[in-house]
Amino acid sequence: MIEIKRSTNEDPEFLALVSMLNADLAIRDGEEHSFYDQFNGTQQLDQVVMVYFLGEPVSCGALKAFDDEFAEVKRMFTHPDYRGKGLAAQVLTALEEWAIESGYKGCVLETGKRQPEAIRLYQKCGYEVIPNFEPYTNMENSVCFKKMLS
Description:
alpha+beta; 150 residues; Aminopeptidase
C-alpha cells in the first residue's frame, strides 16, 4: 500500500510534487514568496525521498549539503488529500537514515511560521528550534530547526 522510494532531483514525479508545493507556498508566503523561492531550487538536491500510496506519489522531501556535518532538509510536501496519515514523518525518517548513511551528524531545516503543521511535524520528530541561519537570519516568518542524528 505504501512504498518509500529514493530518487533524484530529476525525477518527474518529484518535480510534480514540488510544483504543487511551490503553488501552496506562493499563497502562504504572500509578498515574501520571491525571497524564499530563490533558495528552493531543486538543482542541488541529489537525495530525494518520495512516498507512494497505491502507486501514486503523494509525499516528498530532499537533502542538500549544509556543511560537512549537517544536511539541510528541503522541499518537504504531502499532497493535501493525503495529509494527516503520517506520510511526512515517514519521508523525514527516510531522509534522516540517508543522511546518516552519507556521514552527516545531523539535519537542519527552515520552515515558515505560516506553516504550523510543518512546525508541529518537526517538533514531534525531535527537531529543536535554533537561531535562524543564513539566508533566513532577518526573516521574521522563518523558523529554523536542528536535530542530531545517532
